[in-house]
Every structure is written in C-alpha cells, then in structure tokens.
Amino acid sequence: MMQQNTNKIQLNIHKNRAALGNAAAKAVAATIQHLLNHKNEVNMVFAAAPSQNEFLAALIKEYIDWGRVNAFHMDEYIGLEDDSSATFAHYLKTHLFNHVQCKSVHYIQGNTGNVQAECARYSGLLQQHPIDIVCMGIGENSHIAFNDPPVADFKDSATAKVVLLDADCRQQQVNDGCFPTLDDVPTHALTLTVPALLLCQYIFCMVPGERKAKAVYHTFNSPVTEQYPSTALRTHGNVQMFVDVDSAGML
To answer: What domains are there in the chain, each with its CATH number?
Structure first.
C-alpha cells in the first residue's frame, strides 16, 4: 500500500480490490468509533455501486456499534418498482443493511408520484441528522452521487434534487452489469447535491478498477470545475481516497 497527500485528498493505493476494501473498511470503522467516543450517534451516507462491493463486504465484518448509526443513501433512480433488484435501496439492503442493525435507515423513494416532495422530505431528514461520514465512489465521467457534469453545481442551494442522467453515466450502469442495455437504464434520478455531500466531516471514497483510471486522474489533476465533479473533493480537506493499481494507472 502506498499513501500520499495530494491536493488535500489522502490517496491510498492498494494492490487489488480486496486490499482496497479491507483498508477502507478499517479506516471507516475507526472513524465511526472515534466519533462515538464523543457523541451519541453517527450519521452516515452510503453509495450503492459495484465499486463498493469489497468495501461493504469488509465493513460488515468490522466491530461497529451499528445501533448508534443513522444511515442514508445518496441517490436513487426515478420510476423503478420498489421491489426491483436494480434500485440502490436493494443494493444497500443486500450488501449492508440486511447484515447489520442500524439505529435507523432512511431510503430515498424513487417510485413516487411527487419527486419534488420527496426531495423536500429527504432534505428535511438530513437537516435533522447532519452527516458525519460519506462513503462514496466516483463515476467513469467523474460524477459524485448522480451529479453528472451537465447537472453538477458546486454552489447548489438544494440538498436533494431531480437530475437527468447523461449518456456516459447511463452507459456505466450497463458496463457495471446493473442493466442489460442502455434502454433499460432510467433517464432520471434523485440525488444529493455536491454541497450536501461536502457538508460532512469525513469522506471516504472507494474507486477500484481500470475503467475509473481517467476519472481518478481528473480528480487530482484537472481544474476544480463542474466538468469534472469529483474535483470538488479537493475543496473539502478531509477526504481519504482508496484506489487499486488499476484505477491509479494514469496517476
């Protein structure tokens, strides 16, 4: 493992996805314990994507007082049935919440007739539970959550909003095996905004795989701009990024 500080992001390079996941899980578990030494509860946001598989598999094996954790997720497709295996809620249940007993779990409801009301509801929950830790990835187009380059706004006044997914983002869902074809991928989603994500105390970013190498490169080397949404992480000051040799290949 190689560690360095680059543009306010602590970069951790690991030999493979498993090593990346184990290291990230230990770092997150230690941070949860640190926070629980000083407060009664910890509020966390989790991403739902195959890039998080190894991290979440390792996290559920760590000793964590989950009964003092309030959990949220950061984005959800609009229009999928609640029981669809393609929803991010289903992913998080399968990989995390069916294995641990959090104090509370709050899902974004994508299958609703009033998406603006859902944005308001979820924003209210996050105001009641200011986020301590965000566990996230980066998209192939450098998106964070579903803030793709065309819709990312580093000064967004909203906490949650409706977004149109760009073609690169939708193609990634096919590349990841989440949908059989591009036509099957929903065109819209609900997402936490970039400022909402950056309000937390700690960000842990897990980004394995060769297809993410270009996005990792832009995160560290391109101007801080909505063209590359992940560059906003350089403005936070307390971000740990975990990559493998494949995703670090262009650094």
So the answer is: 2-244 (3.40.50.1360)
